[in-house]
């Protein structure tokens, strides 16, 4: 079976609304059966599923998701937003900048882009509208703020990339810190420019130090937990899986000490963590089936030979990979993009001598942009659905933020040291 036929089968199954994981698994299994025969193909499938699901590093996925669910059940979202608004809401555009700050906290605590966007739309959007912020700016801020969960550790997307490519997840987490802060800073700059040049972001209520301090008391333990989880990974004290277990314990202790985590919330939190984990592990396993087919048919090797003989510069090839990922991001979610693209894109990038950690952050940043680009910017749909604002209005408000995101991506590509500085210090 040729690669073109395999891609066609995947495309047809996806058009029939089959989840991308099953589409890739079925196509890869069919290709292996034709290539090797039914019995050898079954042996390969058995080995792939065992090797994939028995990997210790996968333990980090359910634990980080469970930590996020426990903190969400403990009303962390509302408290983080209130604290940021108390400190920044009094200046022009301050509420929007506060929403970005809260999004950074939520990204580190929740790790889910759509969940972060939904939480911000439910809490920060009404507050901005109450202070006469324009619908366009308010929905754009909560949409773009949610994308931070893709690159800010502990990002589930980075975990999946690390598992698919056998790259150090600890180094990926540390490498995502500076790009995440750069992105948040870029968002704040865009907001301030809009606030100074238009009337879309007026000033909020006067600053009250006592109120700001009181609202921050409940957020401080969560900030300490974030720093501790990332710190034990950075210092080599614990692996990402062990740090995730530490994070779950910390989330439980914070919820109990603040009396914000009810016993009845534990069941739904564990249930959501299990459902999300099963989905992600299925995607990873089916992606490995697809990759095994590519390996047996030497598609990857042939692609590398074609790239080597093409005469194109490494920069041109990388630009083609980035553009392809951007286009895929307009129509697919991040995990589907990684499972489809990494079996081919990662070996090509490594053959050109690129660092796997740097490439992971660039890929993650690229698929992050797809969350806010039409026609299928998932975060824009979430913001529009929860706020009642027309989708076209949300996308128009996102234009300056998309430009900013592309500028940050370009900087990260041109200056790899920004991404690799912290991991190289580990």
Automatic annotation (TrEMBL):
Keyword Cell inner membrane annotated: yes
InterPro entries: DctM, TRAP_DctM
Membrane topology (UniProt): Multi-pass membrane protein
Coiled-coil ranges per UniProt: none
Cellular localisation: Cell inner membrane
Keyword hit for Transport: yes
A Pfam family per the record: DctM
Transmembrane segments: 55-73, 105-125, 137-161, 173-195, 216-237, 243-261, 273-291, 311-328, 335-354, 398-422
Keyword terms, alphabetized: Cell inner membrane, Cell membrane, Membrane, Transmembrane, Transmembrane helix, Transport
Lineage top rank: taxon: Bacteria
UniProt domain TRAP C4-dicarboxylate transport system permease DctM subunit: residue ranges: 8-417
Stated role: Part of the tripartite ATP-independent periplasmic (TRAP) transport system.
Matches recorded under NCBIfam families: dctM (TIGR00786)
UniProt family annotation: Belongs to the TRAP transporter large permease family.
Subunit and interaction comment: The complex comprises the extracytoplasmic solute receptor protein and the two transmembrane proteins.
Protein name: TRAP transporter large permease protein
UniProt organism field: Arenibacterium halophilum
